[in-house]
């Protein structure tokens, strides 16, 4: 009997354990099924991509939506593959950005892009000077692949170069932010015959027609390729400044007619569509765009678009006498529009003249002193946070214009500007630090850095000599007495001159030519260490060749005419 009781007790204990296990297990089959379903749902990015609905006349179909739908159906295998890679390698990015605002240096690569080995020298200097980020505006220097390979320059960075740049930035604690234009300043794309149909203005390559079939696909493909090379990026700049000609295409005119001529909304529809695409392409990515196109759009219209939840505006102004109150009005407006943060953009080069050769340090210092006032005023804006400032270094005003100052020429200006932001002014301490890092004596009154020893300082000093002396040395000899008296264009054309008079300046002319030839040989070698051949060719053509070629022509002419021993000029009629 006691054995039966004992067996019942054991069975009862087992039943109790089973009941406890059932009711208190960590997850039920139902929960597991639900989580699995969620994971599958999150993977539907490419199938459920959303483009904002446009208000079109009657039954007119939204061309952007149609274009996207067509593309999704036509290339499901490609999209699914990208989706799969994204799920495996692109988790959410935690918002662990520094508490302090970033100070990022802008590299404009649409001209005179530096070789990676020069970046290897310059990145540690930037970090030492107080920069903690890099804004890399790729343009045609990105190694686009497939159908987009037509976009890349002959000297574009290789995929290996990109990896090295990323490694250098990480090593020197520089946040790397890619920049890809998605609306305006798309000249490097729209100049190609293949993409002529995507222009907003048929005869100008400046801006994309955001409503035409193929436009959004192009932008998405560009962004996808760049993002694939930067999976670790926390910030991404989508450009979108100076959308010249917006509203002039037939597509845009029809849309504007159906939407009360709302140009602001036309702009916002495209950048918000790009924003939504980017936030799905890379979960957690934080976007930036230039603010100029937003300045004339009401805060209510911006808020209605939802842009404030997708990107932050970068307010830019590069002039030395910048109106601080004007900037304040923009900040207030963006705060009212619901943006939680703002970026600023100053300039350390490339903003004082479209063909500027020598960087005016004082010009850019004044610009930064004005920005410092704006930064100091930020606590008055309660709901908008200052996220950082980009010190822009423009290399061209646009894709088709001439080069501005070369990067090594602007290093002293960059150093002065970074230290000004660090100390709040360019005081004795800031000046001392600049001179310590650059190994030179800063003289603002003379706009120079004497005795420099920073990476690229040889190019800095040689460009200074070319800028100060090449043209002036040529003009000096041209203004000499005997050249003006006996070696005019008329004399040279008719081979008519007194050898005695030519002998007074012949040796001096030959010496000047030899000195510049020797100097330019060294200059070429220094430039080739930093830049690709196309940069050297263009810079010499724009700034040197005209004077050197004339000098060589004069030496050839003077030697030829001296050998004629002062013979009579030829009778033009006998040559007929």
From TrEMBL:
Keywords: Hydrolase
Ranges annotated as biased composition (Basic and acidic residues): 60-82
EC number: 3.2.1.52
Enzyme class of the recorded protein, top EC level: hydrolase
Domain of life: Eukaryota
Ranges of biased composition (kind: Acidic residues): 87-98
CDD domains linked to this entry: GH20_GcnA-like (cd06565)
Residue span(s) of domain Glycoside hydrolase family 20 catalytic: 153-352
GO terms, molecular function: beta-N-acetylhexosaminidase activity
Keyword Metal-binding: no
GO biological process per UniProt: carbohydrate metabolic process
Reaction equation(s) it catalyzes: Hydrolysis of terminal non-reducing N-acetyl-D-hexosamine residues in N-acetyl-beta-D-hexosaminides
Region (Disordered): 60-100
Family recorded in the similarity comment: Belongs to the glycosyl hydrolase 20 family.
Protein name per UniProt: beta-N-acetylhexosaminidase
């Amino acid at each position: 009997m006691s054995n039966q009781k004992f067996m019942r007790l054991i069975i009862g204990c087992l039943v109790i354990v089973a009941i406890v296990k059932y009711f208190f297990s960590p997850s039920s089959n139902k929960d597991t099924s639900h989580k699995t379903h969620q994971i599958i749902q999150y993977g539907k990015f490419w199938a459920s991509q959303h483009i904002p609905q446009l208000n079109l006349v009657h039954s007119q179909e939204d061309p952007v939506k149609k274009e996207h739908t067509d593309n999704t159906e036509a290339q499901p295998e490609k999209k699914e593959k990208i989706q799969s890679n994204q799920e495996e390698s692109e988790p959410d990015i935690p918002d662990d950005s520094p508490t302090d605002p970033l100070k990022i240096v802008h590299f404009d690569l649409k001209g005179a892009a530096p070789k990676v080995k020069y970046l290897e020298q310059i990145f540690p200097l930037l970090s030492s000077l107080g920069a903690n980020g890099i804004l890399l505006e790729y343009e045609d220097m990105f190694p686009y692949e497939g159908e987009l390979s037509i976009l890349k320059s002959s000297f574009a960075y290789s995929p290996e170069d990109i990896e090295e740049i990323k490694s250098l930035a990480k090593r020197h604690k520089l946040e790397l932010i890619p920049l890809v234009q998605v609306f305006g300043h798309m000249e490097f794309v729209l100049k190609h015959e293949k993409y002529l149909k995507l222009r907003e203005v048929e005869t100008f390559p400046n801006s994309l027609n955001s409503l035409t079939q193929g436009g959004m696909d192009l932008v998405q493909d560009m962004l996808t390729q760049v993002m694939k090379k930067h999976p670790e990026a926390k910030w991404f700049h989508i450009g979108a400044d100076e959308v010249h000609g917006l509203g002039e295409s037939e597509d845009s005119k029809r849309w504007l007619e159906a939407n009360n001529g709302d140009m602001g909304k036309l702009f916002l529809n495209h950048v918000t569509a790009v924003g939504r695409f980017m936030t799905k392409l890379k979960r957690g990515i934080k976007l930036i765009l230039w603010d100029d196109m937003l300045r004339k759009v009401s805060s209510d219209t911006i808020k209605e678009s939802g842009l404030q939840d997708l990107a932050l505006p970068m307010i830019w102004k590069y002039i030395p006498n910048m109106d601080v109150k004007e900037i304040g009005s923009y900040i207030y407006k963006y705060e009212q529009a619901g943006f939680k943060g703002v970026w600023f953009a100053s300039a350390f080069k490339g903003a004082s003249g479209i063909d500027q050769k020598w960087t005016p340090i004082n010009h850019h210092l004044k610009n930064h002193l004005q920005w410092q006032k704006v930064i100091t005023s930020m606590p008055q804006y309660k709901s908008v946070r200052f996220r950082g400032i980009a010190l822009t270094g423009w290399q061209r005003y646009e894709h088709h214009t001439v080069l501005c100052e070369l990067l090594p020429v602007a290093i002293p200006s960059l150093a002065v500007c970074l230290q000004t932001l660090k100390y709040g002014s360019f005081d004795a301490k800031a000046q001392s630090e600049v001179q310590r890092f650059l190994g030179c004596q800063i003289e603002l009154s003379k706009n120079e850095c004497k005795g420099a020893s920073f990476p690229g300082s040889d190019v800095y000093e040689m460009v200074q000599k070319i800028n100060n002396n090449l043209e002036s040395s040529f003009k000096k000899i041209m203004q000499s007495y005997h050249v003006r008296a006996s070696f005019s264009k008329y004399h040279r054309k008719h081979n008519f001159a007194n050898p005695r008079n030519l002998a007074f300046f012949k040796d001096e002319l030959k010496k000047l030519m030899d000195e510049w030839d020797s100097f330019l040989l060294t200059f070429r070698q220094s430039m080739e260490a930093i830049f690709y051949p196309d940069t050297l060719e263009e810079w010499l053509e724009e700034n040197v060749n005209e004077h050197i070629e004339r000098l060589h022509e004069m030496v050839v002419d003077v030697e030829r005419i001296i050998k004629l021993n002062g013979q009579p000029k030829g009778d033009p009629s006998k040559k007929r």
